[in-house]
Amino acid sequence: MSWHKPDRGGGPRAAEQSASDQGPLAQETRPRFVLERSRLTCQLFIRSHEPLVALTHAPEKSKLERTVIDADLQNEAPAPVSAPSTDPHRSELRRPLDATLLDNATQPAQHAQQGPPDPPLPRGFSAMCVEPRDPRQRRFGSASHPGPQEIAQDKGNQDFAFHLEVDAKGDAPWVLCGVADGVGQATWSARAARHAAAGFIEAFADFVDHPSFPATLEDLLGDVWHAPLSERIHARILGRIEEDKRLLLKGRFVDPTWAPVNFERMFWSGVDSEERIRSKWFQTTLLAAALGPHGGFAVFLGDGFVRVDRVFEDGRWESSAGLTPTRAISMDLGAAEVAAALTRLPPRGAGRLGVLMTTDGVSNSTQEGLTRAIAGCDVIPGFEARPPLERIHPTDSAECARVVETLALLPPALADRDNMSIAFALCALASEAKR
What we know:
The protein is of the alpha+beta class and 435 residues long. The chain has one domain (14-69, 110-255, 280-434): Phosphatase 2c, domain 1 (4-Layer Sandwich), CATH 3.60.40. The protein has helices spanning 35-45, 99-104, 149-155, 189-207, 217-221, 226-251, 260-267, 273-280, 335-341, 360-363, 367-373, 388-391, 397-408, and strands at residues 14-15, 68-69, 138-145, 159-166, 174-181, 286-292, 295-301, 305-311, 317-321, 342-345, 352-358, 420-428. The protein has a 5-stranded antiparallel β-sheet. Strands 4-5-6-7-10 form a 5-stranded antiparallel β-sheet. A hairpin with a 7-residue loop joins strand 4 and strand 5 (174-181). The radius of gyration is 21 Å and the shape is globular. Mean pLDDT is 79; it is low at 2-112.
């Protein structure tokens, strides 16, 4: 993700079409999962790069659906985005350091040469990438790739993608999935992406036993759950970031995408070093969703691509795509920003509810490039003439991995030069959700 800072005004909006018809569960007849290969792709593409250098929310629509707009609002323009110039203190590691700078620099502390430990997994979880237990009812997956070779060599993979099932109140598990895109011009971006994903998972797990958890359709259509959940998401993400900041400062670690001498001068020296840390460390997007037996919710912070799908008993799909960018996650992320980004995903009479999310390395690629990347993937019936990301119908993590792998190998004229991640889910809903 290239560094950008959209205006604070306006929350994210995933463009959705209204669903007027009601119908029971749509039957899926092709649960094509390659479990072992899917597990392998998680291991290969979810992991961030290894350290290179180390120094030590109307009657018909509740206010919670304000971020989900219907067809009559789809022409609303996103907030303007401005991009600053490249940070003069930043240096590509593949370039040799100026010897005169090294001569005048404080040398690295020997005890931190191994680099910082990886950010911890969400509390209570042994993995963030777990394949479906019952793909006939809940189909989901994700994959992340560092992108073209020159990007992988320059900054590694600052994206993160996740997918897993979590047992909760009700008659079926919930599916959590999402993507996070560390801001390329910020610092510790890869770690920020992991913390955002893990914080979302931890917040959900914390909320499962809360009295306002939306375990039924009536609960989901109400407003009681919104505030306590958004507060938990905010607290969990920022809590992880603050804890990691203390670890990194104590160990005098250097972000592997920076030249050590520049990092030290920027963040360890001067009376305003703490302010520079707060303004430049731990910046990332987060597009994440949780789908349960009666519907779901999502949080959209930053940019990328989002699509929401509803499948009806007669096999008809209603799909809407779009996202208005917001400010990305940072150490100054406010609770109100998370509350504005948290939106309900109601079933609207559908038998299945789904999402597809990508980072901007995927969505900024050309239509020709994306068409090549999704070749061989299933397509939503009747959507053959739509743009690639609006028609693709992934089946598993292995297919997601094949898409980003193919895209990363395309020439610059066809594919964005950035990290690339994709996540999806399509879940059967309980009978009461279809009324």
